[in-house]
Amino acid sequence: MVSFKALLKQQVLLPIIQAETAEQGVAIANAMQQAGIHLVEVVLRTEASIAALQAIKAAYPQMVVGAGTVTNADTLNAAIAAGADFIVTPAITPNLLSQLRDCPVPVVPGVSNAADVLLAVEQGFTELKLFPATLSGGAAFIKAMGAVFPQVNFCPTGGINDSNKDDFLRLSNCIAVGGSWIAPSNWVEEQRWQQITAACKVANTPALCH
Questions:
Q1: What pLDDT band is residue 153 in, cutting at 50, 70 and 90?
Q2: Lowest mean pLDDT: which of 16-25, 78-87, 118-127, 201-210?
Q3: Cα torsion at 108, 110, 113, 114 (round to 10°)?
Q4: Which of 20, 23, 127, 129 is catalytic?
Q5: Is 129 a catalytic residue?
Q6: Is 190 a catalytic residue?
Q7: Which domain holds residue 37?
């Protein structure tokens, strides 16, 4: 199976889409695509999220569209049935990991401490999401984990923004940073699509060193 890192290609931003309607999801995805974004995560936090995921995939067949906020077998199965290209979870349990092991697409389980990392590694997962990143040790935590778990790569989300993203991206075991700061709800409500495009361009600029 292809890895999440391979799906990212050169993209260092994992932009999060939270849509109240399918049409809104497509509009957000369009604004992100205008910035050169080819991979997005649709969080399953609204009643329209599955429909938004499907609509984005239909409108932009070349876009890699993942599903986030997967917390149980029901949401996992719904995401896979909708055609999600990858799965992201906010946290892990032994039961959830057992469900994720048989997933037909790449999975990025969420961790928040060293015990979580070890649990995920024991189950064969080496691409992990640190969440909430800034409240769970931030870049210093990811750097420390590199010495103990050199095979693990991280995609931190939660509290990431333009002012601190490079602190993470300079780390060799950080493959991308995720967040919704590039498409906050007020911008979406006010249809400030060009602002979302501009924010994605800035956020997807790689750190000077890695």
A1: very high
A2: 201-210
A3: -30
A4: 129
A5: yes
A6: no
A7: 4-203
